[in-house]
């Protein structure tokens, strides 16, 4: 027994405890050079029982997590484990998963595409390429579409036209779809607000939407 430090002894006793159903205690204590009476004192202590319970809980958590192929986080594991008879809070569950190095796979959130290059329509030429920056308003308008997530789920789409010289929005339209009417209505508002003249250059993503 003199070969082991107190911390080492606890590990040895824990090993013997885990093997009790396989090997005789007296044999393991003799082979490992530890006192059998001291081992029984260790085994009958309350913290050993707590360790057993904790180990059982951890094993049940790991089993449930593995069963669902790492796709269940704490929110879904809590009711799952409750159905199995284990009442455990999300904080404790999160701690066990963290200590075991387990992390649920996060599903990729759906994000609508505002640009689609896979279409049969021709791509408009880039009229701004090689051109000087505009020197006054209503020479160049640039347009774009962005998506806005809704609180209850789903999306709405915002089409905006902006004067490239003044950097001010000339018109916009918000709809629950990204059809042709979205950008057209926004453009109509821009035209109405600015009364642009002939020669205006309109630049967007050149037919990608």
Q: Key terms for this structure?
A:
single chain, 209 residues, alpha+beta, Nucleotidyltransferase, domain 5, 2 domains, four-stranded mixed β-sheet, 41% helix, 14% strand, RNaseH_sf, IS3 family transposase, membrane, Transpos_IS3, transmembrane helix
Brief rundown of the structure:
Helix content is 41%, strand content 14%.
Strand coverage percent: 5-15%
Largest sheet: 4 strands, mixed
Alpha-beta classification: alpha+beta
How many helical elements? 7
Query: In angstroms, what separates the terminal alpha carbons?
Result: 78 Å
The string of secondary-structure elements, in order, is HHHHHHEEEHE
Task: Count every beta strand, where a strand is a DSSP E run of 2 or more residues.
Answer: 4
Domain module tally: 2
Keywords: Membrane, Transmembrane, Transmembrane helix
Transmembrane segments: 12-35
GO molecular function: nucleic acid binding
Domain Integrase catalytic: 130-209
């Amino acid at each position: 027994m003199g070969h082991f430090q107190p911390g080492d002894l606890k590990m040895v006793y824990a090993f013997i405890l885990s093997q009790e159903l396989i090997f005789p205690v007296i044999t393991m204590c003799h082979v490992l050079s530890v006192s059998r009476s001291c081992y029984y004192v260790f085994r009958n202590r309350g913290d050993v029982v707590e360790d057993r319970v904790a180990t059982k809980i951890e094993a049940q958590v790991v089993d449930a997590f593995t069963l669902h192929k790492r796709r269940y986080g704490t929110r879904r594991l809590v009711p799952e484990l409750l159905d199995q008879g284990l009442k455990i809070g999300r904080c404790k569950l999160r701690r066990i998963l963290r200590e075991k190095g387990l992390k649920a796979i996060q599903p990729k959130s759906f994000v609508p595409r505002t640009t689609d290059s896979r279409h049969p329509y021709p791509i408009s030429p880039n009229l701004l390429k090689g051109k000087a920056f505009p020197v006054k308003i209503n020479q160049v308008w640039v347009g774009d579409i962005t998506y806005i997530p809704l609180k209850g789920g789903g999306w709405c789409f915002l089409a905006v036209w902006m004067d490239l010289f003044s950097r001010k929005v000339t018109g916009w339209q918000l709809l629950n779809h990204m059809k042709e009417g979205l950008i057209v209505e926004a453009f109509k508002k821009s035209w109405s607000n600015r009364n642009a003249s002939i020669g205006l250059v309109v630049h967007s993503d050149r037919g990608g939407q």
